[in-house]
Amino acid sequence: MKDRQVIRILVPYSKTLFFYDKNREMGVVHDLGVSLEKWANQQASPEPGNKRVRVVFVPVPEERLLPDLLAGRGDLAAGGLSV
Fold it and tell me: What is the largest CA-CA distance in the chain?
């Protein structure tokens, strides 16, 4: 993630977790991802030329969250998961 400077979050479409409203990403997972991006960039050293980390949301069907995570298509999985 650090080398790519991108954190990929696998997320299912949901009325509360992640959705688009007029081409704007919204939802609880979106808000948490924005906070994660902000935190990750605050933790980075302030050296010249240090690039910022971005969070990218990858919408997938809920049943594909864990298989796609294990296959390396994302770095984190967020959704209504239960044990």
Answer: 44
* Whole-number Å distance between alpha carbons of 46 and 21: 35
Alpha-carbon distance of 33 to 45, in angstroms, equals 20
Which of 73, 21, 71, 64 minimizes the C-alpha distance to 81? 64
DSSP letter (8 states) at residue 64? G
Tens of pLDDT along 21-52?
999 999 999 999 999 999 988 887 677 667 78
Q: Output the pLDDT for position 3.
A: 75
Residue 39 and residue 18: Cα distance in Å, rounded?
20
Do the bridges between strand 76-77 and strand 19-21 make them parallel or antiparallel, or are there none, so unpaired?
unpaired
Q: In the numeric block, which tokens belong to residue 58? A: 């990858």
The model's pTM: 0.84
